[in-house]
Amino acid sequence: LEEDQKRRIHQQLHKVMENERLYLDAHLTLGTLAKKLGVNTKYVSQVINEMEEQNFMDFINQKRIKRAEEMLVGPTFSQYTILAIAHEVGFNSKSAFYTAFKKFTGHTPTTYRKAKTVQIQESERPDSGI
Questions:
Q1: Which among 104, 102, 117 is positioned nearest to 72, based on CA atoms?
Q2: What does the alpha-carbon distance between residue 97 and residue 121 come to, in Å, rounded to a whole number?
Q3: 109 vs 84: CA distance, rounded Å
Q4: How far is residue 61's CA from residue 100's CA, in Å, rounded to a whole number?
Q5: Is residue 92 within 8 Å of 26, Cβ to Cβ?
Q6: Which of 31, 32, 40, 88 is most exposed by smallest CB count within 10 Å?
């Protein structure tokens, strides 16, 4: 692929991911994504590998984990279990979710949620004695 082709595919890739949130589909494959972009799977794979410096699964899982982080601390999803959030963001199993979450954040979803909840509560607390 030439550089301008890579850039064009890369832009399309991000546009589709942002607008359609394809990464939330637990059944998303490289083939499905390539078809959606109207490009060869090898080209999509090459663009992700070279421009994102990741393989396809890491690229998708990183987007899923970013969304999971938002859900874990968002008030809208405070009653959701970790497993429910895992399913919402496209993971089929709790273990795959925990593995990916730890890989990208360095924490388990449970410790992440607890730590962020404490941070939010402390930031909302009025300063005492000042």
A1: 117
A2: 26
A3: 12
A4: 7
A5: yes
A6: 31
pTM, to two decimals: 0.88
Q: How far apart are CA 34 and CA 42, in angstroms?
A: 9
Measured from the Cβ of residue 6, the count of other Cβ atoms closer than 10 Å reads 15
Residue 100 in contact with residue 64, Cβ under 8 Å? yes
Q: What is the pLDDT of residue 127?
A: 63
Answer whether 72's CB lies under 8 Å from 44's CB: no
Q: What is the CA radius of gyration of the chain?
A: 18
The two three-digit tokens of residue 87, written as one number: 């399913």
Compute the C-alpha angle 113/114/120, nearest 5°: 85
Do residues 101 and 74 make contact, with C-beta atoms less than 8 angstroms apart? no
Closest CA relative to residue 73, chosen from 14, 13, 114, 30: 114
Tokens of 35: 């078809």
- pLDDT, tens digit (0-9, with 9 covering 90-100), for 29-67: 999 999 999 999 999 999 999 999 999 999 999 999 999
Q: What tokens were used for 101?
A: 């979450």
